[in-house]
Amino acid sequence: MDLCLVLMITSFGLGMVSTHAELQRFEQPAKTDGKLSFLVLGDWGRKGAFNQSEVAHQMGRIGEKLDVDFVVSTGDNFYDDGLTGEQDKAFEESFTQIYTAKSLQKQWYSVLGNHDYRGNVEAQLGLHLRKIDSRWLCLRSFIVNAELAEIFFVDTTPFVKSYFTDAKGHTYDWRGIGNPRAYIANLIKDLKLALRESSAKWKIVVGHHSIRSIGHHGDTKELVSKLLPILKANNVDFYMNGHDHCLEHISDTESPIQFLTSGAGSKAWRGDIREQKTEGLKFFYDGQGFMSVQLTRSAAEMAFYDVSGNVLHRWNSTKLLYSSI
């Protein structure tokens, strides 16, 4: 399988080790001071339009200030219908030529969104794009061990039943999925095992679709029923997603999990809010922007920025260095 070659061609010092069950696992070197910082961006690839270039500029500025280690993409990487193939110029026009700041020349870890599934999925997953721009790493589901944190990237699009039963005129590239029920069952099994075996100080799960949101799409019922119980049972700290074109922070009312939406990388949906479910809502912004994450062994800080780089919302959390016996 060509995925085993991925880290032999990248220049970011990553190392690949054995898998957790079927999930590919990558090592992300930590800073010598023991701190970890990264940016989170979603729903962005529009060749610079809808303020994508402006958001990218501010990401570069904040990325330099925080000395970020990498960037996380929550999916819908290329609009409107993914990439047509490996030679699609949209990859360079929406990625390489947009995120040009020195601070953003780090590894990008990306999941697929529903719009990506409307194009040639294999193009985003394959080696060719990594040869064009070695920052690029997009897989269906995988794990990044960043020492302080383990980040579990989950392919959420196949969970959503309506994409199979009511595609609304869209064509989805389901190659590699096979029977969706079996695919989801195997993914859940692998994720459960990986989360259970993790000894990371911080556990973060990243998917494209929201579990909790008051934005346009709202809660994803399939994730509420199938994924959320696993997160709760395994002490996951943060679930990060895109899909809704907004910035959002919701605290779970039944567990310590924080739901963090960063799907405002370009086109945003002004005024498109579902106000009937506001329990735990800490912050919502219906404009463009991105999120930063800073972690130490005992503290986490999340910040949301608008298209001008202004901090809209900041949230801090602490945890004990050592668990009580």
TrEMBL record:
Record field: transmembrane: none
The keyword Lipid metabolism is annotated on this UniProt entry: no
Organism of derivation: Salix brachista
InterPro entries named among the record's database cross-references: Acid_PPase, Calcineurin-like_PHP, Metallo-depent_PP-like, Metallophosphoesterase_PAP
Entry cofactors: Fe cation
Coiled coil: none
Gene Ontology cellular-component annotations: extracellular region
Identification of the protein by name: Purple acid phosphatase
Binding site for Fe cation 2: D76, N114, H208, H243
PANTHER family on file: TARTRATE-RESISTANT ACID PHOSPHATASE TYPE 5
CDD domains found in the cross-reference section: MPP_ACP5 (cd07378)
Reaction catalysis annotation: a phosphate monoester + H2O = an alcohol + phosphate
Signal sequence extent: 1-19
Location of this chain's protein in the cell: Secreted
